[in-house]
Design a protein that fits this description.
This protein is mainly alpha-helical. It is built from 4 helices and no strands.
Length: 72
Amino acid sequence: MPTLEKQLATVALALSPRKRAKLAGLILDSIETKRDRAVAAAWAVEAESRSRAHRKGLIKAVPLEQAFGFSV
């Protein structure tokens, strides 16, 4: 007899891509911790702050290759 996980996977994989994506989001949300949410919120604030500073000319962007040391 298939495990519950395999049964669920079979049903989930029969869903449309959109419904699978929604299901995946629900599952990921269910395992997210308070700390994960706090870190994500802090990064969102930081990203907005950096974006605002860039638009005002307070900081300048650098090429991806320079920022990460490799090209994609």
